[in-house]
Amino acid sequence: LLKLRLTIAQSAALFGEPVLGKDILNLAMRESKGSQQTCVRQLAELTMPVGDPRQACDLLATQFGELSKPFEAARVCATDSPCWLPKLQDPDPVVRARAAYELGRAGAQDAVPGLAKAVADEQLLIRTAATRALDWLTAVPAARPALKGIVPQLAEQLAQEQGKGQYVKANEELRRLHVKLTRL
């Protein structure tokens, strides 16, 4: 049940309205006040080791509380693409992924170089978001020259990462994007 709740909370952080951030913070507060035994059991579901059982509820609350950062970024940036561009380098991976999705949805052609860099991120969440954002930008005629310009970079990345198991799924999407871009 906890994995499902965290997945839903992360999805809300990636795509939800900024006002949902308050709900996520309230959820974090509720988790911090849970019973120690319940918190330890829930963390065990996530295969998260708990060194001190007395801190289990705080650790659990942190899992939800960390998701408030993308909501804050969404509140500040809204639909302002220039505001989202630097967020592609944010220390928080969910903020970086949210930035990629927002830039792709906005049709921000000036985001192509940053998104091209993000498809090589170690975090799969960011790779997937950046790949999808670049795919969405193929529908923006003004972005096509920049998209054509990243084809060699994507080909090189795919060649270097061939056989790396951790990137198989993300690179399947990247390979489809690469083919699509070569046909522009």
List keywords for this structure.
single chain; mainly alpha; Leucine-rich Repeat Variant; 0% strand; 184 residues; 2 domains
Please tell me about this protein's structure:
This protein has helices at 2-15, 20-32, 36-45, 56-65, 68-77, 81-84, 93-106, 112-118, 124-137, 144-149, 151-160, 168-182. Helix 3 (36-45) crosses helix 4 (56-65) and helix 11 packs antiparallel against helix 12. Helices cover 69% and strands 0% of the residues. It is globular and about 55 Å long. By secondary structure, it is mostly helical. The protein has two domains: 2-69, no CATH class; 79-182, Leucine-rich Repeat Variant.
The overall pLDDT average reads 95
Count of discrete domains: 2
Q: What amount of the residues lies in strands?
A: under 5%
Assigned CATH superfamily of the largest domain: Leucine-rich Repeat Variant
- Under CATH at level 1, the class of the largest domain stands as Mainly Alpha
**Fraction in helix:** 55-70%
Summarize the SSE layout with pairings.
Layout: H1 2-15, H2 20-32, H3 36-45, H4 56-65, H5 68-77, H6 81-84, H7 93-106, H8 112-118, H9 124-137, H10 144-149, H11 151-160, H12 168-182
Helix pairs in contact: 1-7, 2-4, 2-5, 3-4, 5-7, 7-9, 8-9, 9-12, 11-12
Produce a short descriptive summary.
The chain contains 12 helices and no strands. It has helices at 2-15, 20-32, 36-45, 56-65, 68-77, 81-84, 93-106, 112-118, 124-137, 144-149, 151-160, 168-182.
